[in-house]
Amino acid sequence: xxxxxxxxxxxxxxxxxxxxxxxxxxxxxxxxxxxxxxxxxxxxxxxxxxxxxxxxxxxxxxxxxxxxxxxxxxxxxxxxxxxxxxxxxxxxxxxxxxxxxxxxxxxxxxxxxxxxxxxxxxxxxxxxxxxxxxxxxxxxxxxxxxxxxxxxxxxxxxxxxxxxxxxxxxxxxxxxxxxxxxxxxxxxxxxxxxxxxxxxxxxxxxxxxxxxxxxxxxxxxxxxxxxxxxxxxxxxxxxxxxxxxxxxxxxxxxxxxxxxxxxxxxxxxxxxxxxxxxxxxxxxxxxxxxxxxxxxxxxxxxxxxxxxxxxxxxxxxxxxxxxxxxxxxxxxxxxxxxxxxxxxxxxxxxxxxxxxxxxxxxxxxxxxxxxxxxxxxxxxxxxxxxxxxxxxxxxxxxxxxxxxxxxxxxxxxxxxxxxxxxxxxxxxxxxxxxxxxxxxxxxxxxxxxxxxxxxxxxxxxxxxxxxxxxxxxxxxxxxxxxxxxxxxxxxxxxxxxxxxxxxxxxxxxxxxxxxxxxxxxxxxxxxxxxxxxxxxxxxxxxxxxxxxxxxxxxxxxxxxxxxxxxxxxxxxxxxxxxxxxxxxxxxxxxxxxxxxxxxxxxxxxxxxxxxxxxxxxx
Length: 618
Known about the structure:
Layout: E1 14-15, H1 64-69, H2 129-135, H3 145-150, E2 166-167, E3 170-171, H4 175-184, E4 187-188, H5 193-200, H6 207-221, H7 224-228, E5 253-255, H8 264-272, E6 278-279, E7 283-284, H9 285-289, H10 293-296, E8 301-302, E9 309-314, H11 318-331, E10 337-342, H12 347-352, H13 362-375, E11 381-388, H14 396-406, E12 411-418, H15 429-444, E13 453-457, H16 463-473, E14 477-480, H17 482-486, H18 490-496, E15 500-501, H19 504-522, H20 526-543, H21 571-576, H22 581-592
Parallel strand pairs: 5-14, 6-9, 7-9, 9-10, 10-11, 11-12, 12-13, 13-14
Antiparallel strand pairs: 1-15, 2-3, 4-8
Helix pairs in contact: 6-11, 6-13, 8-19, 11-13, 14-15, 16-18, 19-20, 19-22, 20-22
């Protein structure tokens, strides 16, 4: 046995050899639809397995986190429980954050000089260093990952690795590393607290939106064509869509907006693994306008995302979408597109008239996109939709035809499922092909205007899926969602056109990198460590579903296949495949130290709460 921090060395990722042929995977002898074809020698009895066969995946990765933010975030939606509870999910998950016994003053945590506190003797926080250190938990072993990365630790005396950057009772600063980090390792789109306070007090102005709303209001009362020529009297002529910044998405490797798990540390990790374009988590327009710090944390990005970073918003009303677009384009200089979510299927958003509900109201969607384009400056506007809201009643083709003709979107992403389908059945790539053919046909007719990209989305889990979908449907590129959560190196596979059999050690190294990125983003103090641990466990709730290609009988792997009870090629691989959330916490302790008393994590899926049999430690 080895220590948790020193897993057994394994060979690097292998390019899995597979006999490719033209037959579809279900034609392979012995392959059963919905069942991952694991080699017999790795299939075990349930009593010995760490995989729960009753675990159910609902994959609301485009909206599940919105439910936890609360209905109040959507303004006029009442916070009521659905009569039809979703099966297999834990509702109203609570995440308890342990707090320091003694609360040290934030203003002096770096300098440790009482004079730096503006409130002096009136400050309600502790200024006595020795008293705080006496109450503080024991330092974690090793060097502070944040200090190691950027040359200093913003958490100062609150850092859980304080011993590694404190000398003669003063915080240490590595000026060389700090200067290097300032050029290549920093966060973008930060908004000043004073500006957020303006929004909270409704003192922030939206001059472009105010004029456009006035125009829209008059258009509603009279004929739009009559007033279109008088639009200049309401505002200065905006940039035409064709005059905005250009985005290039041909064969781009695109990561979908992913609520909860698609945070900055995860996107940063994806950039190291070959991703070209990243989207922030879906931001709700109303909380953005209210200056909520939690919502304004979403468009914050890392310097590595520059040149390929997009912000996605959800809104039910034109003025909400326009104001959110105006303020985001004004305050967030390092974004390349603003995307309107018209595909989120969750009831909370749908009932408010946002998300996929806009597909049932194409007039409103059109007005919103036109308004967003008017106020976004030089930032192009894009849209993401589904095939429709009802199963077997697709409406995307008619809608997309209208969007292309109106010329207000630089790209259209089509998720090949209806709202009613959610994620329960395979995406309809035949329908995506029909829509893509229509878009390409209409693009040829456009002489002076935007020729929008058409992007497909749904069930992409391997390099073969990625290329097959592009070839089959004719889309310009493919957006990857759950596939990147379960198998984050999917874009490496796309680049190499090979299945990569990542060893357990290599996969663990990716988890370590995410943990370190999380500490850089949320902080290395008690709060930051627990935030990183919480979101790491959220991510592991997807990664544990990965079945190594080296133990599969047939390829390609399919995202909706569920494995029988199995064990890996070594103990670490078995641990990484565990569906017991307690094992996810155990994995987090390898890089974030022991769990603090009071920390709680509730898995999204109820079946993850089962008591797994004791396993030998790694």
